[in-house]
Specification:
The chain is α+β, with helices and mostly antiparallel strands and 144 residues long. The longest helix has 20 residues, at 124-143. The strands form two sheets. A three-stranded mixed beta sheet has the order 1-2-3. The chain has one domain (6-143): CBS-domain (Roll). It has helices spanning 6-10, 24-34, 54-62, 73-76, 90-100, 124-143, and strands spanning 17-19, 38-42, 48-53, 104-109, 112-118. Helix content is 42%, strand content 19%. The chain contains six helices and five strands, in the order H-E-H-E-E-H-H-H-E-E-H. Helix 2 (24-34) links the parallel strand 1 and strand 2 (38-42).
């Protein structure tokens, strides 16, 4: 599993981005819709400039009593990012997360995001299959 390249990990993944002037609420809505824990902030050329996570909502918005409707991502995003290129192994990204104490690593190619690796990826394909099975069971339970 950690021998997979980041290109393999993010293959087929939707790249979820927003501009720096996007409100925190709109970013949170996008994250919820796509069921992701982070959104990559890009400039008008599609280059990665920041990252905003669900933890940021808690620590940088709610805890500081900021208005999510009027606060742009540019004011609360992390702009000093650690990124990885698609040719790196998953183990490299996991090491970055462990050493840095964060849960998301943007995967970039030429400064443009191509995907996101999260701590969830460390659990491998097996956990994804398990989650799908749980969702199917929930769906069946709803029907019954």
């Amino acid at each position: 599993m950690p021998n997979r390249t980041l290109r393999q990990v993010v293959e087929g993944q939707a790249v979820i981005t927003a501009s720096a002037d996007t409100s925190v609420r709109d970013a949170a809505i996008t994250m919820a819709r796509h069921k992701v824990g982070a959104i990559m902030v890009v400039d008008h050329n599609g280059r990665l400039t920041g990252l905003f996570t669900e933890r940021d909502v808690l620590n940088r918005i709610v805890a500081k009593r900021l208005d999510p409707d009027t606060t742009p991502l540019s004011e609360v995003m992390t702009s000093q990012l650690q990124t990885a290129t698609p040719d790196k192994p998953l183990a490299h990204a996991l090491h970055m997360m462990f050493e840095g104490g964060f849960r998301h690593v943007p995967v970039v190619d030429g400064g443009r995001p191509v995907g996101m690796v999260s701590a969830r990826n460390a659990l491998g394909l097996e956990i994804c299959a398990f989650e799908k099975e749980l969702q199917e069971r929930d769906h069946i339970a709803e029907i019954l």
